[in-house]
Design brief:
The chain has 51 residues and is mainly beta. It is built from no helices and 4 strands. It is 0% helix and 51% strand. The protein is elongated and about 35 Å long.
């Protein structure tokens, strides 16, 4: 898998990186925000894309 397309998703509440994903950076310019389950917070929270 190409490392250029890889992104990290960080929990907005506990600030831990829980997920890795891919995105097409040519078509999606802004940062992703997804509702994902955080195992440390033990609930669904917003996860934002980090560098």
């Amino acid at each position: 898998m190409s490392q250029d397309n890889m992104i990290k998703l960080e929990c907005t509440e506990c600030k831990r990186v829980n997920y890795f994903s891919r995105k097409n950076k040519k078509t999606i310019k802004n940062r992703l925000e997804l509702q994902k389950h955080c195992p440390f917070c033990a609930r669904h929270t917003v996860h934002k894309e980090t560098k």
